[in-house]
Design brief:
Number of helices: 6
CATH superfamily of the largest domain: Winged helix-like DNA-binding domain superfamily/Winged helix DNA-binding domain
CATH topology of the largest domain: Arc Repressor Mutant, subunit A
Number of domains: 2
Helix content: 25-40%
Largest sheet: 4 strands, antiparallel
Shape: elongated
CATH architecture of the largest domain: Orthogonal Bundle
Strand content: 15-25%
Length: 181
């Protein structure tokens, strides 16, 4: 991924940190910022390389090839299986009892975020930002509605969820059977 730090809606550093939460894709930062401190912050946040502008196209292509050589192939789209349903992140499909479960794009987005970070608390604020955008910081009622819909479609007993767990006032977690204590 080539990432320019000067993004209109979000800080480039935030993009790096979020991306590292679920992917190991090589990240090369492009920036006009020349300070050593800025370079160190980006590299420490998860960037693989930092190229300052202006740069030569041959150099950029060589850095891209080097980053690709160093990258470790990682399964980017796993299949998450529970005793009650299966989430195929690559195919963007959910099945239950052998039948495909129809999810809205918003339901899918929420489920994908949670299943890519199993057992980790995802804050309400983070989910709102990732699903609806930066203007939605306090609309927690959206999350309650969509999580209730997902539970009705996926949980064996939506009133007592096993997989889509609410941590009141904090956020949500996706629990897997392997992690039940």
């Amino acid at each position: 991924m080539l990432l320019d730090l000067g993004l209109p809606d979000m800080e480039g550093m935030e993009v790096i940190q979020r991306l590292r939460g679920w992917s190991q894709v090589p990240i090369i930062v492009l920036s006009a910022r020349h300070s050593a401190g800025e370079k160190v912050r980006c590299l420490d946040s998860g960037a693989d390389d930092y190229v300052t502008k202006p740069f030569g196209m041959d150099e950029l292509l060589a850095r891209m090839r080097a980053a690709e050589r160093r990258s470790v192939p990682v399964e980017e789209a796993p299949v998450v299986r529970t005793p009650d349903f299966t989430v195929d992140l690559g195919a963007k499909r959910v099945t239950r009892d052998g039948e495909e479960v129809r999810l809205t794009p918003t339901e899918w987005h929420i489920l994908e975020i949670l299943t890519r970070r199993p057992r980790q608390l995802v804050s309400q604020r983070q989910l709102l930002h990732d699903v609806w955008g930066p203007a939605y910081q306090s609309e927690t009622n959206y999350l309650r509605v969509y999580l209730a819909q997902l539970r009705r479609k996926l949980e064996p007993d939506p009133a007592r969820p096993r997989y889509l767990i609410t941590e009141a006032g904090r956020g949500y977690r996706f629990e897997t059977p392997e992690t039940d204590a």
